[in-house]
Amino acid sequence: ILNVEQSPQSLHVQEGDSTNFTCSFPSSNFYALHWYRWETAKSPEALFVMTLNGDEKKKGRISATLNTKEGYSYLYIKGSQPEDSATYLCAFIHNDYKLSFGAGTTVTVRA
Amino acid sequence: EAQVTQNPRYLITVTGKKLTVTCSQNMNHEYMSWYRQDPGLGLRQIYYSMNVEVTDKGDVPEGYKVSRKEKRNFPLILESPSPNQTSLYFCASSLYNRGHTDTQYFGPGTRLTVL
To answer: Is the peptide bond before A8 cis (omega within 30 degrees of 0)?
Structure first.
């Protein structure tokens, strides 16, 4: 099992504030990194696929960066809204196509 | 509508009684996968399939079987369920069988309780 860690495990954000959290993964044999958003009682939904060192992806108020050399990715939420409350999962894909998910960061946005 | 479906959504069973959780996708995806999700742990991959008749073990395959006789279906079989298989199960699919540069589409989940 590949060691993929997400921190913090949970965080609370005031509506309108921005926040970010981390996905750490092995820096060797990197192939790709996925970010998913998982709302309670729903299925995980894809946010980003990142493959190149230095990649930056954006979707609305959510963006992500990737550093494959040091083995981390940041997810940013700008101007958090209550609908951003969810668990955010990252999945690391090894270059032999093995896949491992982190345990997730649960974001709660307080109105 | 493009989707991944799973059945049943909820199941309570007893130890040792064989069960099958079905998974079907209508997107002509090559890659399909089963995960289990337990509190405090990430999604852990049970089995995956890169194409018809091709299946491989994930990180936690013990106690599970799968088959991929058709492209659209990927059932998960528990021959003799045990209480430690109580979990939330997700099926997922993606377009290509290699590369993982395609994101996965997840089914709605199956909550299984083994007494």
So the answer is: yes
User: pLDDT per residue over B50-81, tens digit each?
Assistant: 899 999 999 899 999 999 999 999 999 999 99
pLDDT of residue A77: 98
Q: Identify the helix (H) or strand (E) that includes residue B22.
A: strand B19-25
Rounded distance, CA A48 to CA B98, Å? Answer: 17
Residue A39 Cα, gap to closest chain B Cα (Å): 12
CB proximity under 8 Å: A 5-34 to B:
6, 31-32, 34
What's the DSSP call for residue B73?
A: B
Q: In this structure, are residues B112 and B85 in contact, taking their beta carbons and an 8 Å threshold?
A: yes
Distance from B95 to chain A by nearest Cα, in Å?
Answer: 13
> Chain B partners of A99 at a C-beta cutoff of 8 Å?
33, 45, 48, 58, 100
Integer CA distances (angstroms), A6 to A28, A111, B67, in order: 18, 25, 32
How far, in whole angstroms, is CA B75 from its chain's centroid?
7
**Residue written as token pair 């279906």:** B73
Coil, strand or helix at A30: strand
**Contacts with B99 from chain A: Cβ below 8 Å:** 31-32, 97
Query: Do A97 and B40 count as a contact with CB atoms less than 8 A apart?
Result: no
The answer, yes or no, to whether residue B101 has pLDDT greater than 80, is no
